[in-house]
Amino acid sequence: KKKRWLTFPSAVRELVLDNSRSNEGKIEGLTEEFVNLEFLSLINVGLFSVSNLPRLEKLKKVMFCFI
């Protein structure tokens, strides 16, 4: 039996989206609900802009690569 974990955005402190697909160069689904997010990695996601990323007050480190 496969275990499934339910995680609320407010519980996430680190989020690694490396090698995920962007939608026309933008990340979707990352919202202001991630209030405790401290680390975000967006390497090799085809990102063109960070303009649609929400303001995350606790975010300390972001890793990204524009490709």
UniProtKB/TrEMBL annotation:
Secretion signal, residue range per the UniProt entry: none
UniProt-annotated location(s): Nucleus
Key word Nucleus present: yes
Keywords assigned by UniProt, alphabetized: Leucine-rich repeat, Nucleus, Repeat
Any one biological process term the GO annotation gives: regulation of apoptotic process
Coiled coil (UniProt feature): none
One cellular component (GO) term of this entry: nucleus
GO molecular function, one term: histone binding
Record bears the keyword Transmembrane: no
Role, per record: Multifunctional protein that is involved in the regulation of many processes.
Similarity-based family: Belongs to the ANP32 family.
Designated name of the protein: Acidic leucine-rich nuclear phosphoprotein 32 family member
Organism, scientific name: Oncorhynchus kisutch
